[in-house]
Amino acid sequence: MEILKSRFFKKNTALVAEKLLGCYLVRQIGNQKLIGRIVETEAYLGVKDSCCHSFQNHFTDKTKAMYLEGGFSYVYFTYGMHYCLNVVTGDKTQPEAVLIRALEPIEGISKMKKYRKKQNLKDLCSGPGKLCQAFSITKKLNAKKLTKKGELFITKGRAVKDKELDSRVGLPLHKDSAYWFLRFYIKNNPHVSVRKNQIC
DNA sequence: CTGGGGATCGAG
DNA sequence: TCGATCCCCAGG
Length: 200
Known about the structure:
By secondary structure, the protein is α+β, with helices and mostly antiparallel strands. It is built from four helices and eight strands; from the N terminus they run ααβββββααβββ. The structure holds a DNA duplex.
């Protein structure tokens, strides 16, 4: 179980998003370990991406974690009830990140069911808000280093063959960057999120 | 100080 | 299709 090093996250953001497919998100809560295989990601390209929180170097208390170096977390709260987990990429001059959108539950499934208050395996981590609930990820885990053993980290996985590429999800459709093809997922994996804002 | 929006989810 | 729900931030 090899932990991904910060070097992994300091490459091209879209490439990082693609290479994160098949890797494992590990959440350690006391003695309890939760593991999920990453099956869906989205890249957010910083200052030039109008859908990115750090568009045009927008800098606030909320977005400042994006200005950390690659390998840190960026967790934010949205819609009054959900958290989303990102991994920061690039160096400090590139406030870019990859949103972790879905996981395939691997270990600690009974705990995930408890946190989610859902029994169906497919309901546990098939969305960015769901997986944060299943893994008990809140704002307390914002701006944390993910490249060492601790409460939250990512380990290397096996290479994935069937990758798909699509436009991103849940964004204001009047912005052209909403249509950029920066969503990566594993083809035919039942734990990939269901998109509602079907484009075209 | 205040009001409006949000990288979502789930019920109906 | 729509309502929940609340933190954060821009604007006054």
